[in-house]
């Protein structure tokens, strides 16, 4: 196989089976039937009570650029042997559908559509893999960041993960997702350049080792950098590192801004308390203590419980790799398809597990917000022609355990999706990443604390309207009858 094809498009960033299905649809002449797909996940990651949606901006760029480049076409034809007639069709294919999506920074939950794609079947099918790839990673990291930030609270937070990320794309899109999830800054300079997000950093042990003398290394750093954070644990934190940092800070006085010190090994609780005492005694009560070293939300919580004196946290590996749960598991399901007569018909995917049965039909999602206390009562999935806002009172019930129910009155129903692509044209301007972060923070205010705690949070309701639930049951019944008929004929 040749391997000198230009890497000049993302259109082949798909699974082979999507192209094979596309070929069958095209050969049978059903490729342009209208199809509706929904993208959603079935289980929240990390045992968290909510997720933070991220990935839309890259999806929009991908859809805008969606076409088979000359090298894509050459590869499909020369190496994979697709026939000329299908190849000729692919040459002119672009994305002409419409997309509805929640905004980046939106809080989202299991079993509700994050994106809805309304497009010719072939187009909606070909984009599945890329959309899932983007949303699954970015949403996972934004959620992990938000979860860690819930523990960090108002102390500083910096993303340090680039060296440990699963390759370069993950590093930069992960940095961006970390900011959306609530982090203050990233150490990745390219992410800063591409996404206009704050970059920050200290220095490494290598600098102290290179000078072979801690005092000289700190002094040298201070000569060229106004803001100084000295890494104090290369030799001996309390006997050498902290005293040398204090010495340089005293000597250079107003010539530098002595921001503080960083601890990167040893017993962080003990060392931070001792370092705090030493800095305070030397008069540097404003100097900050920054810590790093394989941190995650559990270690941070534990360090706080031990009374660690930390002002700012640098977090790499366990954030950028979503260490304790490396995949989100969002899926992309066909919910409605045009039939031969040109009418839309709902479709369903059945499994033995009730929670995994897809919900058919063109639907909308509303967040039901209690007007009295400003808190979210839950999310409410309705058929496209329903509008809960015109109802005085809605009954919200669990879609599987239907006896769990409540009536809600005096509410605002916020529609969760925005139309972002209209007949192939991107019509949505993404806000800045910083605005996405603010949006996520504001939305967290809508949630009761019970949904936000890191351990065993309450399950946030994601319910179906009666009409939506009835439609699902009707579809299940239809499939049952169909399977029964097939069995009878065997
Ligand atoms: N007081 C503490 N309580 C709980 N966990 C801590 C405490 N201090 C440090 N840790 C965490 O313990 C883990 C292991 O630290 P460890 O002692 O192996 O690192 P180290 O050997 O000091 O440093 P390194 O191996 O990076 O040079 C790290 O995740 C660190 O964040
Ligand atoms: O620990 P993380 O959360 O991944 O944060 C990033 C780590 O990267 C640097 O370490 P370095 O690459 O020098 O390795 P080491 O500290 O493990 O020796 C830094 O000192 C942090 O410890
Ligand atoms: O700036 C830092 O201190 C930093 C950056 C990346 C990884 N570890 C630390």
Automatic annotation (TrEMBL):
Source taxonomy: Bacteria, Bacillati, Bacillota, Bacilli, Bacillales
GO BP: NAD+ biosynthetic process via the salvage pathway
Keyword terms, alphabetized: Glycosyltransferase, Ligase, Phosphoprotein, Pyridine nucleotide biosynthesis, Transferase
InterPro entries noted in UniProt: Aldolase_TIM (IPR013785), N/Namide_PRibTrfase (IPR041525), NAPRTase_C (IPR041619), NAPRTase_N (IPR040727), Nic_PRibTrfase-Fam (IPR007229), Nic_PRibTrfase_pncB (IPR006405), Nicotinate_pribotase-like_C (IPR036068)
Uppermost EC category: ligase
Pathway it works in: Cofactor biosynthesis; NAD(+) biosynthesis; nicotinate D-ribonucleotide from nicotinate: step 1/1
Domain Nicotinate/nicotinamide phosphoribosyltransferase: 158-344
Keyword presence, Phosphoprotein: yes
Source organism superkingdom: Bacteria
Molecular function terms, GO-annotated: nicotinamide phosphoribosyltransferase activity; nicotinate phosphoribosyltransferase activity
EC number: 6.3.4.21
NCBIfam families reported in the protein's UniProt record: NAPRTase_put, PRK09243.1-1, PRK09243.1-2, PRK09243.1-4, PRK12484.1
Domain Nicotinate phosphoribosyltransferase N-terminal: 12-136
Domain Nicotinate phosphoribosyltransferase C-terminal: 363-471
Family: Belongs to the NAPRTase family.
One Pfam family linked to the record: NAPRTase_N
Gene Ontology CC annotations of this record: cytosol
Species annotation: Ureibacillus chungkukjangi
SUPFAM superfamilies hit by this protein: Nicotinate/Quinolinate PRTase C-terminal domain-like, Nicotinate/Quinolinate PRTase N-terminal domain-like
Protein's name according to its UniProt entry: Nicotinate phosphoribosyltransferase
Record's comment on post-translational modification: Transiently phosphorylated on a His residue during the reaction cycle. Phosphorylation strongly increases the affinity for substrates and increases the rate of nicotinate D-ribonucleotide production. Dephosphorylation regenerates the low-affinity form of the enzyme, leading to product release.
Functional summary from the UniProt entry: Catalyzes the first step in the biosynthesis of NAD from nicotinic acid, the ATP-dependent synthesis of beta-nicotinate D-ribonucleotide from nicotinate and 5-phospho-D-ribose 1-phosphate.
Reactions accelerated catalytically: 5-phospho-alpha-D-ribose 1-diphosphate + nicotinate + ATP + H2O = nicotinate beta-D-ribonucleotide + ADP + phosphate + diphosphate
